[in-house]
Structure formats: C-alpha cells, structure tokens
Amino acid sequence: MNKTVHALRLTAVVAASMAMVFTAAGSSSASQFNSFCEAKEVCIYRDSNLNGAWIDHQYADPNYWNNTWTVIYPEESTNDRASSLDSWDPNWKVRFFTNSNYGGSWQTLPEYGRANSVSYNDQYSSHCWNDGGVGGYSQCDF
User: CB of 68 within 8 A of CB of 46?
Assistant: First the structure.
C-alpha cells in the first residue's frame, strides 16, 4: 500500500509539472522593449515607411526622454525622432503627442493603425491608449 501511495504521488507531481510546462509554452504575450512588434503593442520607427530603428511599447509613456531604440541605434534617444508608427492593438486607439506628459499637438492611430509618415515628423515625446469609451477605461482622455 505504501508503494501505491508513493506511485500515485509521483504520478501527480509529474502530471502537474507537465501541465505547467505545456501551459507556459503555449501562452504568449507581448513584452515591451523586446524588439518585436506584437499584439497589443505600438511600434515607433525612426524612419518613414516603418524603416530604420524601432522600439515597441505595450503601455502609455509620458516621456520618451529615457527611451532608446531597441534595434540599430541602442544609444540614441527616441525623443523627437519618430517618423512612422504601427499599432498592433485590436481594441485601443493610440495618441502621440509632441510634448511630454501628453501635451502639445497630437496624432491618433486607430486600432491596427499605421502611419508611414507621421503628422509631426521627429517631434513626438509621449503617447497613450484610449478605448474610445467601449471599456470605460483609458490611459488618457481623448
């Protein structure tokens, strides 16, 4: 009987371990600043037509000053250097601002929106998401 209990416990531990491995392997989520444009992110490009260095954002950012490009120019700040934008978010609009803390002139990308040439070239300093009132939550009002 003791061997049976031990075998059952071992089987349960192995099954639980395998379930955790398969769950972890099967789940994927976007990860900010990992150099990939993924679902629920927006990518900001240094050059027009989604070319050159880029950075991927998953959250609002009130100030680009401390951000650097994740690819090509890792030492260069992204502040005032955006030339094209690509939103991979299916539910939220993204607004880009020429000043930090969501101020100044702005441009809005719709869900899954793309701007091969931005309205204010090399001037963006912050951005935030807005669900358009659908979910009742916004990172900033617009």
Answer: no
Instruction: Map out the domains of the chain as residue ranges.
Output: 42-130
The three-state (H, E, C) secondary structure of 33-57, written as one string: CCCCCCCCCEEEEEECCCEEEEEEE
Under 8 Å between Cβ of 111 and 142: no
Q: What is the 3-state secondary structure (H, E, C) of 81-113?
A: CCCEEEECCCCCEEEEEEECCCEEEEEEECCCC
Fold observed for domain 42-130? Gamma-B Crystallin; domain 1 (2.60.20)
Q: What is the pLDDT of residues 48-103, one digit of tens each?
A: 999 999 999 998 999 999 899 987 888 899 999 999 999 999 989 999 999 999 99
Distance CA 88, CA 43 (A): 8
3-state secondary structure of 20: helix
